[in-house]
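User: Sorry, folds how?
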Amino acid sequence: MRHTILYRYIFFGIVLAVFVLYGNTLKAQETLREYNGLAIDQETQDPLVFVGISLKGTNISTVSNTEGEFTLKVPITTTEGVVVLSLLGYEQKEVALGSLGTSFGKVLLTPRVTKLSEVNVTTFKSAEALVRRVFDDKTINSTNEIVLMTAFYRETIKRRNRNVSLTEAVVDLYKQPYSTSKQDVLVLHKARKSTDYRRLDTVAVKMQGGPFSTLYLDIMKYPEYIFNDETIDFYDFHFESPSTVNDRPVYVVRFKQKAAVIGSGYLGKLYIDAQSYGLVSATYSLNITDSREASQLFVRKKPKDIKVAPLKAVYRVDYRQKNGKWYYGYGSVLVSFKISKRRKLFSSVYTLASEMAVTNWEVDASKAVPGSKERLKPSVIIADAVSGFSDPDFWGPYNVIEPEKSIESAINKIRRKLKRNGS
């Protein structure tokens, strides 16, 4: 029997409309000190991506960029402390806060080989049984209170290998309990954006969804985007060699859409804590079986003479544990398209990427959730506002993801242009 996938997809939109929305609330400036570092594989000397960096005993955290660099902002009153670096498959690393300086000094992480004896794979009859256990236990492994999170969001649009649109934002995320069906609430706190429309090759490519595109990667809160009671049967699950995160053993489960299922499903890996059965991380991609069907999933609006062919869609979500509970910590999406225009000889490849990292949070059930007027909508497109890029202290007290060299170069070009124009 053949089945058709019916569930929703996490998508970007390619649209021509522009929606304007600005936040008007600013947190009080704090006196902070910056600590910088570069996460490196001890054996290969390669930079490590998506390393979680946190100040021990606090919820202050950030994530390393694609070049392994990170910056952690800490209150100036905190003169001593321990910075913890963690990444799947590596030994957890702890360094003294004072050992990190203003330059990006190397912090070496050691790969760890997990012995099969550390993870008892015979506890479950099948990998699918383990995955079902993860979703069954999600209310046990998460808090039943509202969690107020501060998150940094970045999105980029590239034409070939050149940045043509940059967006950065700080948002307040009111994370609803996983035991309820209440939707999470996002409030835009601060944002900046610049788009070079001349390099968009006459095609106005914009991201629709903004921070929601990464928020919906929280598959424990939004299982309908990948595994629910019906669609979990559309996949085959298999155990792979176990790994570790934060020196704790994790199961590694590979999943893939069954051959009998019609439509574009997913394939990837789930990393599951062997002690609590909490989801630690998930990495997966869209199995594009029909380019036309996949195009309809992503493209919301386009001119009739434009053809859009998705090339790949890659997703990642990470969770963090504190006091026995698991919290959404990081999400990223990368989608590539080939866009061609009728009666035009050459096509262009665009890459749309977004990531959101939770940089602080507090559990407080008394927090009043903002009203509808203050909330971001899932259809949001963060509006163009280039002036923020001319301000080197724009982000103030917020922990953000250190920009990659290519993004930093693009921002510097914007600054120089503003300076020439007398802005």
About this structure: Residues 105 and 314 are 30 Å apart (CA to CA). Confidence is low (pLDDT under 50) at residues 16-29. The chain has two domains: 3-16+141-420, 32-109. The longest helix spans residues 405-420.
